[in-house]
Amino acid sequence: MKVALLSDCYPPRLGGIERQVHDLAHHLVAAGHEVEVFTATAGPGGERGGVVTDEDGVRVHRMAVRLPGGVPVNPLAPPEVRRRLESGRYDVAHAQLGVVSPFATDLTRVALDVGLPVAATFHCVIDRSGPLFRVMGHVRRWAERGAALSAVSSMAAARVSAAAGDAQVEVLGNGIDASWWRRDDDEVPRDIPSGGARPVHVVSAMRLVSRKRPLSFLRVLRRSRDLLDAQVPLRVTVAGEGPQRPLMERYLARYDMGWVDLVGRLSREELRGLHHRADFYLTTARLEAFGIAALEAHTAGLPVVAPRGTGVDDFVTSGVDGLLEPSDLAVAHAVARLAADDGERERMRAHLQEAVPGHDWPAVVRASLAEYRRAGAAA
Question: Rounded to 5 degrees, what are φ and ψ at 312?
């Protein structure tokens, strides 16, 4: 099968969609398919203006134009992309969409116009933008023209369906290399509390931006510390960078929270090592369409504590391999409960050690191909 992936963003830009599109492209190629990416992101050497590069077996059409900050926008691209889609003998086009994706949105219409089967996957939470999506009507029109709509979680899919006039929207989750993240028994031992000498180690990984609610994260931790027996030491490590870091640092200093460490951005190898040594993972993000960072920690063997009603619901079963709660106060209580109960943490970890990961790349490739077949049947 020859697949055209349509995405505003692509490496070398950093971000969740960029990484997912890149990895999907290469796993499809590894499975024997031909993949070409159309993106408004310039290449690592500044390639733009329609230059086509071969990047480890994936042909990338760099449709970027020179804009301040390298913003991945090009309203002039559709005519040239249309010509390439018409002549390229593609079997399907797969658009990758966020809340604001002008390039992929334009190209979805182009792909439909040239008669290609189209799959469109939403990586976002349509929240306050829902009324705008309904007024614009483009997602509903895509569905009416046969596009196979999907989103990365059940929660996100429900929002897309509502914006598309209750159209059918399947769940097509993100993928990870599950075997790489999992911890083997012969690896370096975790930082397990022993006789009260070592602290219970809570970890999180996030971009320090307001959408991830980093200050709410710290407020939850502060409340958890108040709820937890003073004899139970607590240690928290937060991986990630972003504009909210100075606010977090001031909050930590104000409330004397020296037991919380902001370690900055870590490599994937460093993050995996952190997860393998920790006790459980915490997130307080609410507009989480999927929760790839939580999934990585979960696959590495960590119980996950999170708000209920996000993409995390699709891979965490509350009380079995984590705790999902309806409010920040309830999340704080869950953190205190799990920190105080060695037995519950170990029971959850044992379950995770035996569980078969549901979001490894072979499964995601199979699900993607099923969406392509659904798009083809509709077309």
Answer: -60, -25
